[in-house]
């Protein structure tokens, strides 16, 4: 599955040389699709990614209402095929300082860059965590997403994935290092902050306030902007006030002085507003910014309370800016570090009975807490492996190695914190020693390092007890086969041809509980040797040589070269005629099940759970407890082995959340069997037509839409 990204070491050199004097340290501004480096009218240094970002495509757009240079281009990511648009991720990886907070901002201006007039919809990720869904509804409007995140590692990845319509694209990507005290929360190890609203009240124009007025380049949106469901239901008597006098703001979140020099006042005793909060309902961080910027004398006072429907506790504190700040022209910042808010927020500030002045409001910010997904526990090890090859495209794919989709050379489990089970770096021109990280992946089952230029000894792989297939052929390795190979309980295939270790097996012992390990070697250009170790006797012997071209029509193997005979069970050794019936089918993710394994799992196909023109479906439970649905087609469902092989190959490549997961197959003794994940909640028919089922028409429409999405992947 294709992924894309870049570590921006070159950008650090550029920004330190060109922008140190022009902007705050820790600023990175990427003009996605742009080809030039420049400084904009605000003094922000931009770099185009066209010269160093080797993935995706660039396009030029022209939106009459948008004159800024960074919005004249986009970078977009066309799908390799119609079935991969929702199963890819495309990542930029930004260098950061660990334990430092950053504001991350991504913007999207469609501008009909692809001339399709199909508004894109896709997901935005921070590392393994889903940040937001980007929905384009106006080709001339900039869609912006901001987040405040505490960097946990030296790199931070921003990824686009899961496109449901159109093509994922991005206009700009910005990184702003924040002051150490800004936006601290007790929850930042578990959640980052996604911006929902940051509003400057009493603004004189519709233009936002940002850098250089805000040294951290936060964008404070004007309350004069007019759009649907944004600051509506304004109370009568709401008036703007402003001052030219300096306002002290060097505390708390340090809003810019220009923002605090304007405000709205409820001259009739009340301020009311309603707006939609992107990302909500949910828990959030919400703070108001007040400063007394009107002149009045004692005994006049300004006291008021906050009111939110359904949240009576917010009305308990009384705001008295003169006392709380204390004094005039000073920042006072009350708020909530963790408050539950609805999507449609209505709120009011109302003066108390003993107040002579109506409420005042200068600005506020609201963020939603977004849970940080831990991703794969193998991520640090995989990052270490990739860092050894910084110039290789496959090594800079970015993001989590497994979430939301694996790197192109990786396969992972499907659990909440997926583990890496396969790496395939065959034919990638690797040099030096075998990377030791492959021995630090405890769930790794398959290693593909064939057809490279690796040298030295085979490293310690004993920590990967699940290893079953190891490809090291066509390298320049030296030394003997490590003795620990014999203690790997699941090892069944070891390929070493054209490497020195095949000459020396004397140190390898095999546990008696397992049957055999196949070792393919090559003594010379004209002589191949297939050794098999009998785990009962610890003796090596040479089984019958496979016929020339065996398996040649079964598709590409793990090494993309030299199709080899798979491991053979003891009962098949005694019955050579059955070997050709059991040959595995080359797939991307499908697991080959033994017929005997499925017979045990289904209690000899005893529990029938469905049937149709295709055949019969049986319930089963594997030895590891995993529940499965076993589909046994009728004899005429397939016109031959080739058709069955093609179906398995296709099913193994299709993955979608609305499709039942295909797990594997069995092609043995003339039987063609498909194995799927078992779904506990019954069939769709039972839910739609069951007597005790009552599904609304809205829900039925959602079901139809989800089914259509699943079917579109299966075409």
From TrEMBL:
Enzyme Commission number(s): 2.7.11.1
**Principal location class:** membrane
Q: How does it sit in the membrane?
A: Single-pass membrane protein
* Keyword Cell wall biogenesis/degradation found: no
Residues annotated as binding ATP are 631
One Pfam family here: Malectin_like
The Protein kinase domain is annotated at 603-715
- What GO molecular-function term can you cite, just one? ATP binding
- Keyword Nucleotide-binding appears in the UniProt entry: yes
Q: Which InterPro entries does its entry note? A: Kinase-like_dom_sf, Leu-rich_rpt, LRR_dom_sf, Malectin-like_Carb-bd_dom, Prot_kinase_dom, Protein_kinase_ATP_BS, Ser-Thr/Tyr_kinase_cat_dom, Tyr_kinase_cat_dom
Q: Name one GO cellular component term.
A: plasma membrane
Q: What is this protein called?
A: non-specific serine/threonine protein kinase
Q: Which organism is it from?
A: Panicum miliaceum
